[in-house]
Each structure stands twice: as C-alpha cells, then as structure tokens.
Design goal:
The chain is an alpha/beta fold.
Amino acid sequence: MSNRILVVDDDASLRRVMKLQLEEAGYQVSLATDGEEAWRMLQESEPQLVITDLRMPTTGLELLSRITQAGLRTTVIVVTAFGTVETAVEAMKLGAYDYVTKPLDFEALVLVVHRAMERQSLIEEVQTLRSALDQRYGFEGIVGHAKGLLRVLDQAARVAQRDATVLIQGETGTGKELVARAIHHNSRRGKKAFTAINCGAIPRDLVESELFGYTKGAFTGALANKEGRIESTNGGTLFLDEVGELPLEAQVKLLRVLQESEVAKLGATEPVKVDVRVIAATHRDLSAMVEDGTFREDLYYRLAVVPLRIPPLRERREDLPELIEVLFERACKRHGIDDLSLSQGVLQRLIAYHWPGNVRQLENMLERLVVLSSSNVIPVEDLPPELSAPPRPALFWPELPEQGISLEALERDLIRRALERFHGNQTQAARYLDISRRTLIYRMEKHGLVEAGVHKDDE
C-alpha cells in the first residue's frame, strides 16, 4: 500500500519534527514551505495525504481549494494555531478530512493520520473496482469492430441515455446480456440494481410469484409477504432473458408493469408502484410467436420499442482473430498460466470454424485448451475432433448443432452470401438459390437486406 505524505508548513522546525514522527510511524514524508511549493509538488506526484498549515504564504485554504477544484483524490488534514470553529467549518466545507490544532500532540496526530490513510485506501479500492466495472460492462469491453456489431453498439449507446424499453435479439451465445449490462451501466440507473432473470429457467408455476411477489396467505405455503424480483429492482434495470418463454398469464402482468408501472402481487388487492426499466432478450422469433398465438402482440410491441439484433459470429468473422486473442489472454489470466500461446495451426482452425454456439462456445473452447495444455505452445493435436480437421471451405454445417439453429437466421445468411457471391446481382443470386427473383426480393425485404450496395437492380 502506498503511504506517501506531503507536509506543508512555513515553520522549519515544526516541519522537521513532523517528518521525524511520521517516518517513525512508517510513512514516506515530503516537505513544502508553503501552498505554492506544495501545489507544484502535487502536480509531479500525488501523495495519499497532505497535512497543511493554514497561516502561511499561499494559505492552506487556498491549497485545499485548488486540490478540490482539480479533482485530486488526495486526503487533506489541516493544521492551525487558530482552531476556531469558523476556520474548521470552512476547511471541512472545502473538503478537508480533519483538522488538528497547535501545539501539536504528535501521538494524536499519528492516530488521525492512520485513520486518514485507511480512508484513502478504501477510496482507492472503490475507484479500482469502479474502473474494473467500467472496463467489464462498458461498451468498450465488448470486443469487435465488424460493421454490423458497431451499428448495434452505436444504437445501444444512444438508447442507454433514455429510459425506453429495449428488445435484444440474437442467437444463443452472442452476448445479449453483455449488451444489456452495458446499456444499464451507461444509463442514469447505472448505480442502481441490475437484475438478470432467465425466464426459461423458472418453473412455469413459480413464474408469477418469483417475478411479481405475493402476500401472506395468497396460496398454501405463503407464510409471509414477499417482494418479487421486479419490485426489488425498483429504480434499476430488469433484464428478462429468453422472454419468449414467459407463460401467457405472466405476459399479461408484465404488460401492466410496462404500461402502468405497477406490479400486481399474488393475493394483493392493490397494485404496487415501481420504477423499473425493462430490457428483454430472446433467441426466438417473437413476431412468429405472435402469429402462432404463443406470445401477446401488445406485449411484443411494448418490448420492441427499440429492437437490437446482435449478429452471430459467422456474420462478423473479421472479429475472430481479436476475439481469440482477448479471450485466450483472459483464460490464461483466470487460471494463472503465463507463457502459453496458440500454434499457427490451432489459430487457423479456430478462425476457419463456423462457431454455431457463437462467442460463448469460442470462449469455452479456449478455456478448455488453456486448462488442458501440457506445453507452452498448444498444438493442433489438442483440438477436439470437430476442430482438428484441416480448414475447409464450407457454406453449411456438416451436421445439425445440438443446441439448435435459427431457420430465420440461416435463410438470411444464405441470401446475404448469395448476393455477395454475385456482387448484388439479384437474378444470378436467385438462380443460384433456385428461387424466383420476385421471391428473392420478398425475402430480402423480410430480412432487412434491402440496403445500398446489396439490393441492386440488375435488369
């Protein structure tokens, strides 16, 4: 722990004695004769603590004022021979931690210094944790520079400043919760609660009591009142992952939360007011579920005020090298392993693979390679069978992935690739896909592929 102290006093003998006493207590002490010299020294090296006299050229109050205005994180103790209440109050208003009076009781001074340094350590620890949170949950913590991803992050950063409901769509493992956390972290609710709920993981008969809470006697076993997850998030952000799995009965109550900002507890006669921002996410096609009658249309439009679609990894393959590097370093750091690298053969196969499980699958694979590594360079032989074969140009999965696929996303991807193959020529792309040009245009519009440079009139 750093323990640097700057003592500022125009009394040379008192400076020497304070330096001696504080160094005996284990601190590193620098000296300044007045506020001006102390300010210059603070620019060069910011000590954890400043102990300053008040009456001197460029007074202690002036120095304290400069420190506060500059936003320096140094703790300040003031020393005065004129320890009136007014002087103390003025110093504390300017941000001083404490004050001591002359003649100094050095034992008492050292005790005050110990407390001040403990406080300073806590402040620095909180700042370190805050920086780590900013790095982890800020938008800058999301790796990738593909055009499709940057477009989503730009929209997410803009919507973060507002309180609008957001619906994040994307395949499993694309990082929907990461984007939701970044939106929350960069919003006015950033210091409030962020509650993530996987709607598909709650038993259907417990969904309502878990989300909305209940009152004593509402059902057998309800022995006391209980807040639901929504009410306990009051003031913060509620992230509903896999919102398509919500039963219809719970969808009605969620709609009321969004429309009226009210929670209807089980067994309660009056609703409870709440202030919660909702961010929902799903890998399913909610519009198709609306057509099937398994998801409420009014709730769908309430959730999709700002829809964001996170592209799957296969649509941003240019991000693979950077993702592999960052995730591999994180895995090594997490397991305390230094001096480990991927061979060129492994790197080529990782880049060539189609990653149906997206970033999550890539992250898990890299962690497996790190944990099971037996040499400083991971060879191709350490790869699992699906990755150990030489890279091959493949437009389709050789077999259906166990975790399922999105037919909508597959169709969109095929159409996009066909258009890219023929440089936007719709006639040739339609012939390649064995469909009519009219059908191709219809499906391009359906998937939002009618963009400049993609929708090209070729007749």
